[in-house]
Write a structure and sequence with these properties.
Layout (H helix, E strand, L loop, with lengths): L17 H6 L1 H16 L7 H21 L9 H23 L1 H4 L1 H6 L6 H27 L8 H29 L3 H14 L12 H7 L3 H10 L10 H25 L3 H4 L1
């Protein structure tokens, strides 16, 4: 009687195997639900922590940049102006942070069984999306309280903005999660990088104060297009810059391709070096 040895390993192809991810969808949901429970387990305020960060940041920025520095905010009150940026920036930054640390944080599982490792950074983005939904609800309520009602274009702009934000975090997160396996400095550098990137993104200031040439450079960061577009839902005549959109979409595509390429290239070595 012959003995057979079955070797399970990642596919050599650099393409994203959606059918394999679908087969492991229950594991994907398990990881996401586990992270959601752990995030708020044994906390006094619970889900309120998701609200506290953008609201407290809005108050601080409004006092120092809106009232003291007199940074313009167009037709919107500065508090609403900056909250629009903080809600979507928070979704991006938390998704990026959780995705980059997802592999290292699950090293014991990676060493024991085979599963498509890509579901770990993807599930981390889902967890951040839950926080985003709460913060977006707060944004809408606050806008209505101030007397600003979203236009009908909200039904188009917001879903596109959410997808663009998620894809942006996904592309960079895939690269950083794989890079973090080999070089653990990522977890120390990333918070500083995110903080610097926030000030290079029009979160607390309008893009209009930047020269047209620099606006095109800033559009390489897709969050520039996202935040500028989201603020337009409260304007009677929304203006969407097609040049910014085009540059941002190209940037997202490049980051997704590169992030997926690097992730798939190094995936087979994760269990050995984690």
């Amino acid at each position: 009687m012959k003995n057979y040895t079955f070797i399970i390993k990642p596919e050599s192809s650099l393409a994203l195997n959606l059918s394999e991810i679908w087969r492991y969808r229950e594991l994907f949901l398990t990881f996401a639900w586990r992270d959601i429970r752990v995030r708020y387990k044994q906390t006094i305020l619970g889900i309120a922590w998701a609200i506290l960060q953008p609201v407290s940041s809005m108050v601080v920025f409004t006092v120092f940049f809106g009232n003291l520095a007199k940074i313009p905010s167009g037709n919107l009150p500065y508090s609403l102006f900056v909250l629009c940026g903080l809600v979507f920036w928070g979704f991006f930054s938390t998704s990026l942070s959780h995705a980059s640390d997802s592999l290292v944080g699950n090293e014991s599982i990676i060493k024991k069984v085979y599963f498509p490792k890509i579901i770990l950074p993807l599930s981390a983005i889902v967890v951040s999306f839950i926080d985003f939904l709460i913060n977006f609800f707060i944004l809408m309520v606050y806008a209505v309280i101030l007397g600003y009602y979203p236009s009908i274009l909200t039904l188009v702009i917001i879903p596109v903005a959410v997808v663009v934000t998620a894809f942006s975090a996904c592309g960079i997160g895939l690269f950083l999660s794989a890079f973090n396996i080999r070089y653990r400095d990522v977890r120390y550098i990333l918070p500083f990088f995110i903080q610097v990137l926030m000030f290079l993104t029009p979160v607390i200031y309008p893009l209009s104060i930047v020269s047209p040439q620099k606006q095109l450079i800033m559009a390489i960061n897709p969050m520039t297009m996202v935040i500028e577009s989201v603020r337009q839902i409260f304007n009677d005549r929304p203006i969407i810059d097609t040049n910014l959109v085009s540059i941002s979409l190209i940037s997202i595509l490049v980051s997704l391709i590169f992030g997926l390429w690097y992730f798939k290239k190094t995936e087979r070595f994760f269990a050995d070096i984690v």
